[in-house]
Amino acid sequence: MRRTLLFLSLSVSIASQAQELCGTIADRCEQHITKQYIPDGQFYRALLQGDEQAEFNLTLFGGTTYRVAACSGDSDGILVFNVVDKDNNVLFSNKDQGNAPYWDLSVTNTIDVRVEAGLDPTKAGSGCAVMLIGFKK
Amino acid sequence: MRVNTSSQFAFALGLGLLMVSCGGSGTSTTDNAADTLAVDTTPKETELLNVGGKLFSIPSPVQTALAIRKAGLKYQKDLTAPLEKGDATVGKVAQSTALGIYSADLAYVTVHKDGQRAMATMQAIEKLGGKLELTNSFDKALLDRFKTNLGSEDSLLQFSGVAFRAADQYLKDNQRDDVSALVLAGGWVESLYLTVSDPSAAKDQTLVNRIGEQKNSLNALVELLESSDKEKAATSLVAAMKELQSLFSGVSSTYTFQEPVTDAAKKTTFINSTSTVTIPADKLAAIVAKVTAIRNMMLA
Q1: Are A122 and B18 within 8 A, CB to CB?
Q2: Which residues are registered as beta bridge partners of A38?
């Protein structure tokens, strides 16, 4: 019983620390979705360790420019993300752009993509990954 | 999968150490972390955070509202949900989906420059946000900002996008992923309802395509609703969404990869791949009927 209580209180404390950690990263990441972009209203985050990857499927609508921001740790450039089409062609990788913390995707025709994000192993072994998406009207 | 207490304790301790190390020097701690966090399914058991794995993205209702406007469909305020419905809703599922519905309505009335209705919708959102304990995202300060910027469509869309993102973050931080999913579901269904409710939408190929292009989003939404509904409070909604999903299976699409072009100076990649989507007329009619039925169910 005491162990369970200890575990529960520790869990609450850790969850609170995790929130704080991800919240701080989110605050920094939001700066990349500037006023020209409308936030998509969602918050994407995952706790990563080692070579784990977080991924999500996304429909990019034709005629739209999207901004994808990807952040982790206490500075820019820690999160590596790829945008991959349904045939596994890599459409964009921020690794080719010095781990840029944000990038714009100008989409001609609607396509379904997968966004994969992982930590740059040379910069972090674990951390909270936050991704934000905005789009231009 | 059940995890014994000592494993949970070890995980908790390991995660605690991980948290402390996250903001550190940036050097790799893989070896130590791997020892204490070897059981990668444990976080799902404890619901502290989703570790790695899959996230979900649902298109913003604003994008659909903009597509409706671009297609030149007539603005019909009566298509939006009655604002008094928000006061009458009881229970987490009804309140969450209603909040999502109002988010889509807010986008629709805003892009059609109906400032008065936008303000009234935002007030309804604030009230519902209070019921769902989201007052940190939808508060009086937001209403005031909204009121003073009623003439600026861009500002209103920006404010509402930031507010809904903050609400989503708050819900996820507090392990209320079910509410987050239901809000997204309400917004997605209402967006589609606003699109299909005008009969002239069926004659606009761009809008018809936009309906068909929702197939993957619907798949993600169903997965998200199912995985987050731990209390089985939304089983009838999930069942209805699955019926809609089966109708969408009649939507076919093609995709042709084209090499993207990157302009590093502009930090932009131009994605030029092409795609087509086809919806048989009978499937479209069935989708319209089903979307309307789900929307009515949400507002019942």
Answers
A1: no
A2: A135
Chain A positions in Cβ-Cβ contact with residue B169 (cut-off 8 Å): 23, 26, 43, 45
Q: What does the alpha-carbon distance between residue B203 and residue A107 come to, in Å, rounded to a whole number?
A: 24
- Beta bridge partners, B53, equal A54
Largest CA distance in chain B: 63
- Cβ separation B157–A137 shorter than 8 A: yes
Number of domains in chain A: 1
Identity of the residue numbered A110: T
Q: ipTM score here? A: 0.91
Q: Which residues of B touch A88 (CB under 8 A)?
A: none
Q: Which amino acid is at B79?
A: L
The answer to whether the CB atoms of A15 and B209 lie below 8 A apart is no
What is the per-residue pLDDT for B21? 38
Domain that residue A39 falls in: 2-135
CATH number at residue A107: 2.60.120.380
pLDDT band at B29 (very low <50, low <70, confident <90, very high): very low
Interchain CB distance below 8 Å, A137 and B66: yes
Predicted confidence at residue A137, as pLDDT, reads 83
Question: pLDDT tens, B262-296?
Answer: 999 999 999 999 999 999 999 999 999 999 999 99
Strands A79-85 and A111-119: antiparallel
CA–CA separation, A103 and B253 (whole Å): 27
Chain B: nearest CA to A87, how far in angstroms? 8
Beta strands in B118-231 (DSSP E): none
Residue A34 dihedral angles phi and psi, to the nearest 5°: -75, 175
**Rounded-to-integer distance, Cα B175 and Cα B169, Å:** 10
Per-domain residue ranges for chain B? 5-46, 61-247+281-299
For residue B8, pLDDT beyond 80:
no
Q: Taking residues B44-57, what's their average pLDDT? A: 54
Which region among B5-19, B104-118, B232-246, B276-290 has the lowest average model confidence (pLDDT)?
A: B5-19
Interface test with A, best of B19, B25, B259 (most A CBs within 10 A): B19
Decide if A135 and B60 are in contact by the 8 Å CB cutoff: yes
In three-state secondary structure terms, B264 is coil
With beta carbons under 8 A apart, name residues in chain A contacting B25.
Answer: none
Nearest CA in chain B to A74: B23
| Interface size, chain A vs chain B, as Cβ–Cβ contacts under 8 Å | 246
As beta bridge partners, residue A54 has A117, B53
Tokens of A60: 């990019």
For chain B, what is the mean pLDDT? 85
